[in-house]
Amino acid sequence: MMLELAEYARANGYIVASPTVVSTDMLDRILEKAESAHKGVLILVDEVQSNSEELKKLIIAYQEAVGEGKNVVIVWLTEPIRQLINS
């Protein structure tokens, strides 16, 4: 499913990133590249651990990026999102 989503996004002009390490610095670097290329970003994150401090920081950075009007989407493959919110 994630591969199909990535192919669809690329075909529609998005930059697709599948990081092995999730961090706020990673999001900043990806957004900088996307802005210079005038493209949106799809970030695919697989096997997320809900108790990860890096993940919490990434979520905050993502919310800030969206608030600034940046064209970024994150797709998580993880345990139910409710558990992430409650942890």
Biggest beta sheet summary: 3 strands, parallel
Q: Tell me the radius of gyration.
A: 13 Å
Query: Which whole number gives the mean pLDDT?
Result: 80
Strand line-up across the major sheet: 1-2-3
Give the proportion of residues in helices. 40-55%
Weakly predicted, low-confidence segments: none
First-last Cα distance: 27 Å
Strand fraction equals 15-25%
Order of helices and strands: HEHEHEH
Q: What is the number of independent domains?
A: 1
Q: What general form does the structure show? A: globular
Strand segment count = 3
> Number of helix segments?
4
Estimated structural class: alpha/beta
Structural features:
87 residues, alpha/beta, 3-stranded parallel sheet
Written account of the structure:
This protein is of the alpha/beta class. It has one domain. It is 52% helix and 17% strand. The protein has helices at 2-11, 24-37, 53-67, 81-86; strands at 15-17, 41-46, 72-77. Strand 1, helix 2 (24-37) and strand 2 form a beta-alpha-beta unit. The longest helix is centred in the C-terminal third of the chain and has 15 residues, at 53-67. It is globular, with a radius of gyration of 13 Å. The mean pLDDT is 80.
